[in-house]
């Protein structure tokens, strides 16, 4: 059996945590392949609500082995506080595996993230301030610290020295901050080594052997397609590849292993942080979506920017990820609108454009072209099958499916595990 990828089809916060948790009971491994604790994945199980940042959402399914792949950046302090938080609530986390090749978010990476954003002022990205970008920058610059480096003090010291050489110049001379002491960083990092050791594994080997043994492996993306460093709205993106290809590099499995790529798609659109967002609403409809949808960031507590569904973006996500299915979430939030606008194309400099423009300048000017779809007023949160939905809700789903280019195989009608309509099985 196959490997599946589950990823965000918009700007993140589509409901990936809920969808992963839903499948977690039926899969053997859930793997995070990129990002770090910039993610905030909410999982609601019965009356219990969990907010996961770094750990794969599969950690809540007892039969499932959660894996942090080589492509993830790991802040050890966050890791241990998340683990102990779950342990206190009775969740067994002992099966967790962490790649020895994953990079460590060091305290200086967090500092650099914060000072850089402050310096950018009005031009800031609106990062989560968790050190994500600077850690990936160190990785690409070949001065990153990997999990395995914690087990060789001399190598670790050399690497921290190399990394801080330039950074301390920058921090003291340019940003007017205090230099960071090598010894202090090394001591802090070494302090995590023993606690981390039971989890560290050759996850590439483990996952490929699992696939050889017909186990089911689910790759859980953080962030979303439009936040991808290559395919997103650069520079207003995160510093990794949440898109499907990222699962291969970030976990060490070949593309031929992956049989299904599921895009999580919110029935409207949200975004956190800066950057273009054609269907963004600044009126009472935007406020209503934020209020009804509870659109507040899980990681930073920032209000999410809200807007109508954008089919141009959904089509783009289908294309760059090779999506085989969509999981449409939060349809229940749209209950009560008489008419629901859906963006079917853009108008850019007076011309109608059907596909996402590759030029960011054009995208910044894109004005949504809306089609109005009839709404519904019935409560849909108890719907179990597609035919339980009111006719107009069915038509809304069908219209989105047609515009977006892949079948909608599940629909979320509430935050809970069982508040889901399954149309086609994922497994
Ligand atoms: P993620 O980052 O993609 O995992 O998404 P977040 O957890 O940041 O945000 C999604 C929010 O929507 C969470 O509060 C979920 O509990 C909630 N949610 C997920 N699916 C549904 C749904 O179908 N309906 C409703 N009303 N809420 C949902
Ligand atoms: P989940 O997994 C929404 C956004 C930040 C910022 C940009 C860069 O919960 O969907 P970073 O700290 O990654 O360098 O910030 O990316 N961002 C997210 N937005 N959901 C997320 O994760 C995000 N992770 C990062 O707001 O605009
Ligand atoms: Mg989130």
UniProtKB/TrEMBL annotation:
**Reported cofactor(s):** Mg(2+)
- Asked if Cytoplasm is a keyword of the record, the answer is yes
Gene Ontology terms, MF aspect: adenylosuccinate synthase activity
Active-site residues? Answer: 13, 41, 139
Where can this protein be found? Answer: Cytoplasm
Q: Which residues bind IMP?
A: 13-16, 38-41, 128, 142, 223, 238, 302
Q: What is catalysed by this protein?
A: IMP + L-aspartate + GTP = N(6)-(1,2-dicarboxyethyl)-AMP + GDP + phosphate + 2 H(+)
Name the keywords, alphabetized: Cytoplasm, GTP-binding, Ligase, Magnesium, Metal-binding, Nucleotide-binding, Purine biosynthesis
* The keyword Cell membrane appears for this protein: no
Supply the PROSITE patterns for this chain: ADENYLOSUCCIN_SYN_1, ADENYLOSUCCIN_SYN_2
What are the binding positions for substrate in this chain? 298-304
Q: Which Pfam families match?
A: Adenylsucc_synt
Give the Enzyme Commission number. Answer: 6.3.4.4
- What family name appears in the similarity comment? Belongs to the adenylosuccinate synthetase family.
- Function description: Plays an important role in the de novo pathway of purine nucleotide biosynthesis. Catalyzes the first committed step in the biosynthesis of AMP from IMP.
- What is the protein named? Adenylosuccinate synthetase
């Amino acid at each position: 059996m196959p490997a599946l990828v589950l990823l965000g089809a918009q700007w993140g916060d589509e409901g990936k945590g809920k969808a992963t948790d839903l499948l977690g009971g039926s899969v053997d491994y859930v793997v995070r392949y990129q990002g770090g604790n910039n993610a905030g994945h909410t999982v609601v199980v019965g009356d219990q609500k969990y907010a996961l940042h770094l750990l794969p959402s599969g950690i809540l399914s007892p039969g499932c082995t959660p894996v942090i792949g080589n492509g993830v950046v790991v802040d050890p302090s966050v890791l241990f506080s998340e683990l102990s938080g779950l342990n206190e609530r009775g969740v067994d986390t002992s099966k967790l595996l962490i790649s020895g090749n994953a990079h460590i978010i060091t305290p200086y990476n967090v500092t650099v993230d914060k000072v850089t954003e402050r310096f950018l002022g009005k031009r800031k990205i609106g990062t989560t301030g968790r050190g994500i970008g600077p850690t990936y920058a160190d990785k690409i610059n070949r001065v990153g610290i990997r999990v395995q480096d914690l087990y060789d003090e001399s190598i670790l010291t050399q690497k921290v020295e190399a990394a801080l050489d330039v950074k301390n110049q920058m921090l003291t001379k340019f940003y007017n901050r205090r230099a960071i002491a090598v010894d202090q960083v090394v001591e802090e990092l070494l302090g995590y080594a023993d606690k981390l050791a039971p989890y560290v594994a050759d996850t590439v080997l483990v996952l490929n052997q699992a696939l050889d043994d017909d186990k089911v492996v689910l790759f859980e993306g953080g962030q979303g397609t439009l936040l991808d460093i290559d395919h997103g709205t650069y520079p207003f993106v995160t510093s990794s590849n949440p898109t499907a290809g990222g699962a291969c590099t970030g976990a060490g499995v070949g593309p031929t292993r992956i049989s299904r790529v599921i895009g999580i798609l919110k029935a409207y659109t949200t975004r956190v942080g800066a950057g273009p967002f054609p269907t963004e609403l600044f009126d009472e409809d935007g406020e209503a979506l934020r209020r009804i949808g509870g659109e507040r960031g899980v990681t930073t507590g920032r209000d999410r920017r809200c807007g109508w569904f954008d089919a141009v973006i959904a089509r783009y996500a289908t294309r760059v990820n090779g999506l085989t299915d969509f999981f449409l979430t939060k349809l229940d939030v749209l209950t009560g609108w008489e008419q629901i606008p859906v963006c079917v194309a853009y108008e850019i400099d007076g011309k109608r454009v059907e596909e996402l423009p590759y030029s960011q300048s054009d995208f910044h000017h894109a004005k949504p072209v809306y089609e109005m779809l009839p709404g519904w007023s019935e409560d849909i949160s108890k719907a179990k099958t597609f035919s339980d939905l009111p006719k107009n809700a069915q038509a809304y789903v069908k219209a989105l499916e047609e515009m977006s280019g892949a079948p909608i195989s599940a629909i979320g009608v509430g935050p809970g595990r069982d508040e889901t309509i399954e149309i086609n099985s994922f497994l």
